Amino acid sequence: MRNRTRIFSLAIAVCMLLTVFSFAPAVFAQEDAPSGEQTEQTQISAPTEPAAEAEPAAKMLSENEEEEVPSQEETEVYTIRTVLEEGSGTITVDKQEAKQGEIVSYTVTPSTGYKLLSVTVGEDSIAVENSYTALSGTFTAEADTIISARFAKLSTFKITTSVNSSSRGTITASQNVTENGSVTITAKAKSGYYLSDLQVDGKSVGAKSTYTLNNVTKDHTVKAIFSEQIKIMLDAGHYGKYNRSPVYSSYYESNMTWSLHNYLKEELLEYSGFAIGVTRKDQKKDMNVYNRGTASKGYDLFLSLHSNAVSSKSTDYPLIITQKGNTGDKLAKNLGKVIEDTMNTKQGYKVWQKLNSDNKTEYYGVLRGSKAVGTKGMIVEHSFHTNLAAAKWLSSNSNLKKMAEAEAEVIADYYGMTKDGSGAIIDSDNSSSSNTSSSNSSSKIVSSSQKVKVLVGSLNMRKSYSTSSKSMGKAKKNKVYQLKAKTKDGKWGQLKTNGYWIYLKNGYTKVVSSSSSSSVKTVKSSQKVKVVRSNLKFRKSPSTKGKVLGKAKKNKTYRLKAKTSNGKWGQLKTNGYWIYLNWTKPVTSTKIVKTSKRVRIKVTSLRMRKSCSTSSRTMGKVKKNKVYRLKAKTSNGKWGQLKRNGYWIYLKNGYTKTV
């Protein structure tokens, strides 16, 4: 029994062993097979599975294999490099590598003491607009790119300065300046002289005591021209409290002339070309008239300031009294005209001379004295203090300041003077890259196509626009010259034929034709203005060059429809012509109030007018001693509107009396 059990156990063990070995070839074959045949061998070693069901498994594995294959369309990455070819500077980029199509930014900066010459990005040359500052830009990455730059050391330039006479003034010493740097030149006149011109590289830049060159890129020469000052002696006509007005008791001629001569002195000293003296240091002390004239010895001009007197209360003309033979003097006429215009006198100015019975010597002591020492002299009568309106006008300090300013301008214009500028002229060799400030220099050049006729003999043609400039010959009297440029203040004109300059003011020339391409900005306006001077011209355009189309009537009120943005010119609503507004005054609308009062007429020839203004049309006259009923009046009570016909009468000055 025991043996039978052993045999049975052995048989079972043999069967199990055979079963194991029946699987071994497939297993060992699977371990030895290449990886690419692994799936196929696995399918073969599974005889219990139908062949048709093995395909889906194969497909799934194939898809997994495709996901592990790298993409052939991956984005290219390019290298960005910088190369400094020459000089000293920096090149910076915002990235060292960039994908295709990506934007790359760069900045190229010269080191101190260097300038940028050129920049290349890949195969492209980049324009360098300003060599002295950093250059920035961008490009699109499309390949490996090199950004290269060249720099160079800044040069040094010589600024050579000089004066026409070292005894007349000084100028900043010559010096070197680094390229693109700046230098300020200062010119200073000595006592008795003034700076009449400053020339840079042989060209006038105006009489400026300070001149700055910015962004220097070449050598320069700067020359200061100094001239003798024009010396003017001012005489306050009377001392103490003298010549009281018979029509305005608070007015004294002596007080007015003392104030005016002080104001005029201040205004004239605004021009560095003038040296001013005064005959009196104390208003309270008298001084012999002849000695006041001789006090002008060594001076170029003597002006004795006065107001006039006459028995007539309506006389108001300004009067200039000259030395013998000088009644045609241009300065005398200009002074008379400016007083007339500034005071708005009803009568035009006059120029006289008055001699003693010998018809040789001056009647007036101050003119006799000034002539004795060789000084050109004038007595300047500022209207009549026997005229109420004139006496009141001359009693105002603000009016006297206005008069002083106007007279100073006339005198300066006569002598070709301009005021010193408040700031330096700024110039630049490289205007496209400099930050320059503008100057209101009166000698700034503007283009012009004017034609001018020379009215005097011996008018100098000069190398530059300055009386101290070299004379290149004479312009012919009565000949017409074409200009190609002029100074901004209109005082000098450059001839088209030879480039020389002639002085245009003081009646030396007359414009015969002009053209201008500059447009004037205008704005709408409904303002009313009253003309305060005679001979105010209607012009076709808002310019003194505009064609004259007639004259406006003095004291007439005009309605505007437009004016220039600077307020200097106004366009009339009626005809579209232009007038110069400096010779007008605004007319404010008068407020009307109702009234039923009655007035009696106290004078003869009191006019009825269409509106409440002395410039309004006369509609007839009211009768003396007759009583009229009003229906309205102006709020200031000066004008009343008649109920019967709507016309206006003037109520003040004792013309009417309320009943």
Automatic annotation (TrEMBL):
<dbReference type="GO" id="GO:0008745">
    <property type="term" value="F:N-acetylmuramoyl-L-alanine amidase activity"/>
</dbReference>
<keyword id="KW-0961">Cell wall biogenesis/degradation</keyword>
<dbReference type="InterPro" id="IPR050695">
    <property type="entry name" value="N-acetylmuramoyl_amidase_3"/>
</dbReference>
<feature type="region of interest" description="Disordered">
    <location>
        <begin position="426"/>
        <end position="445"/>
    </location>
</feature>
<feature type="region of interest" description="Disordered">
    <location>
        <begin position="32"/>
        <end position="73"/>
    </location>
</feature>
<feature type="signal peptide">
    <location>
        <begin position="1"/>
        <end position="29"/>
    </location>
</feature>
<protein>
    <submittedName>
        <fullName>N-acetylmuramoyl-L-alanine amidase</fullName>
    </submittedName>
</protein>
<feature type="compositionally biased region" description="Acidic residues">
    <location>
        <begin position="63"/>
        <end position="73"/>
    </location>
</feature>
<dbReference type="InterPro" id="IPR003646">
    <property type="entry name" value="SH3-like_bac-type"/>
</dbReference>
<dbReference type="Pfam" id="PF01520">
    <property type="entry name" value="Amidase_3"/>
</dbReference>
<dbReference type="GO" id="GO:0030288">
    <property type="term" value="C:outer membrane-bounded periplasmic space"/>
</dbReference>
<feature type="compositionally biased region" description="Low complexity">
    <location>
        <begin position="46"/>
        <end position="58"/>
    </location>
</feature>
<feature type="domain" description="SH3b">
    <location>
        <begin position="596"/>
        <end position="659"/>
    </location>
</feature>
<keyword id="KW-0378">Hydrolase</keyword>
<feature type="domain" description="MurNAc-LAA">
    <location>
        <begin position="295"/>
        <end position="412"/>
    </location>
</feature>
<dbReference type="InterPro" id="IPR044060">
    <property type="entry name" value="Bacterial_rp_domain"/>
</dbReference>
<keyword id="KW-0732">Signal</keyword>
<dbReference type="GO" id="GO:0071555">
    <property type="term" value="P:cell wall organization"/>
</dbReference>
<dbReference type="InterPro" id="IPR002508">
    <property type="entry name" value="MurNAc-LAA_cat"/>
</dbReference>
<dbReference type="GO" id="GO:0009253">
    <property type="term" value="P:peptidoglycan catabolic process"/>
</dbReference>
<dbReference type="Pfam" id="PF18998">
    <property type="entry name" value="Flg_new_2"/>
</dbReference>
<feature type="domain" description="SH3b">
    <location>
        <begin position="526"/>
        <end position="588"/>
    </location>
</feature>
<feature type="compositionally biased region" description="Polar residues">
    <location>
        <begin position="36"/>
        <end position="45"/>
    </location>
</feature>
<feature type="domain" description="SH3b">
    <location>
        <begin position="449"/>
        <end position="508"/>
    </location>
</feature>
